[in-house]
Amino acid sequence: MSKMARVLIADDEPDLIEDYHCALSQFEAGNPDARLAELQDELFGPQQSNGSLPQVELVAVNQGDAAVREISLARSESRPFSVAFLDVRMPPGMSGLDAAMKIREIDADLPIVIVTAYTDVQMIDLAKKVPPADRLFVLQKPFHTTEIQQLTIALTARWELDRLKASGNPDVAEDELRHLQDLLGNLPGGVAVYDERERLVHKNGEIEALFPNMKDSFRIGAAYATLRDNLAEQLLPERVLKRPMQANTEGGGHIVAQGGTAIRRVAGNRWMMIAERAQPSGGSVVQFLDITAMKVAEQRRMINGTMTHLSRFAEELLNRLEPAKRGGALRLDPVAEGDDSDVTQRLQQDLTPVAQRLQLTPRATMLDALINEVVAQLVPGLPLSITLETVSSIGLWPVFVDPAQVKQALRALVDNAVEAIGRDGRIYVESMNVRATRDALPEMPGLRSGDYVCIRVTDNGSGMASEVIDRAFMPYFTTKDTQDHRGMGLTTAFSIVNQSGGFLYIDSDGQSETQVRLFFPRAPIAAPGKSAAIRH
Asked: CA–CA separation, 521 vs 515, rounded Å?
């Protein structure tokens, strides 16, 4: 491979340009970490961990016409780009789509990734305007660094390999081609290679780990149709998010269009990025990448955004409700019998947690003692078939919370777990110190670097589908009988944690386990003679 892969970024938002730099920083030439790896190679010989990764020269512009000029200049200087990421809209100038069409006139082989936050961008329409389809991709915002890294590595490798093969130069060193093959082979995820007869001829070790119940599909010599049909039972077809052409998993055809990519939800609340590429000699290569962590982070960002908007709406309702109540002009349900004041009071009680206006009285608290107190209260009322266990780390840090409110949140979570289990099962309530690092932050949006105490409630009940998690914190949402459940338990728990400066996340396999984690910031160490305080 060329010593330097050139990547073009066109986006009018400086923060997103910075995101690209962060995603590719470990590959960028001149980066201190990259230079450290080079010195390590010089001292100890080539290291397997970075031997197949390209170095990247990142060129960033903020307008479409500037991107076109960079492509033209690169071609004239014989320093072509190996992949271009174009934001679909970059006002006030040329759009990303218009820029892609002009770029295609200059470079017919350049892989182009259209980046967009809009859902009205259709891949089929784009492929007609910017052919060929196998060199055009769509990346949805908000994206994860994993997507940027994998697209850059994979597209750079394939572009370089195609360029070398197309040159027909017999002097191309075999070790260079071998290096390219190693690069593709070392990509994270599972890889399956099929020959022209659609028989499996090569696979890597990770593919069976991704699909442990489909081992027969990955035996050497297994038919492509076997993989396609078995995979159709695992995929949830109603949630196709990205594809360059019509995907087909039923009655023949391909898993995704050859040369295309798709992101599909798999049974068990998992997400897979699937790429299929036809080979010049016949057959195809299918690659699977588990991107569940990225999709969960995306889901959490959406939930946090939704709850923020709901909070503002509820706050505005409360502001308008109070003077109307005092003036006696409020009539919420003229048909219902009873005092309007009772209905108004209940509505105010429900809106208060949604609006993040709970009255908290925080103080330094040890969560392990608080958990033990709640469990001692709940255990006598549990069915004998359900076991509730607690595990606390030694040396737990103090947190600054309202103990009564946190106990309320914890009781709501345990109650939900009990109902999810139904008959026989276990509930674990754990507490531990957690040091949030930058590496973990993309999967836990909102969480900042620092020290936290985490409460983790795990049950082995029926699990929560992804669609249920999407709405779990919404007021009045419940999957249970509405006569007995008002759907405010998780809403209130979310508000208590949020107002305490913490974060609440739900994880579930959708089938047999659910885990809820509450993160509370470690209490600051008060200066001598002073007490810590919390501000709302």
From this structure: 20
- CA-based nearest residue to 61, from 87, 92, 22: 87
Cβ-based neighbours of 230, under 8 Å, separated by 6 or more: 214, 216, 217
Q: Residue range 374-388: average pLDDT?
A: 91
Asked which of 121, 153, 187 is the last residue of a domain, the reply is: 187
> Per-residue pLDDT tens for 116-140?
877 555 666 677 788 887 788 888 7
Nearest CA among 131, 10, 151 for reference residue 68: 10
CA 466, 467, 469: angle at the middle one, nearest 5? 65
What b-and-e string marks burial along 439-466, b requiring 16 or more CB atoms within 10 Å of the CB? eeebebbebeeeebbbbbbbbbbbbbeb
Q: For residue range 292-331, list pLDDT tens digits in order.
A: 877 777 777 788 788 888 888 888 888 877 765 555 544 4
Residue 82 lies in a domain: yes
- pLDDT for 327: 53
Question: How do residues 209-256 score in pLDDT, each as one tens digit?
Answer: 888 888 888 889 999 888 888 887 777 654 333 333 334 444 456 666
Higher pLDDT pick, 279 / 198? 198
Distance CA 135, CA 277 (A): 11
Query: DSSP string covering 398-437, please?
Result: PEEE-HHHHHHHHHHHHHHHHHHH-SSEEEEEEEEEEEE-
Q: Which amino acid is at 166?
A: A
CATH number at residue 401: 3.30.565.10
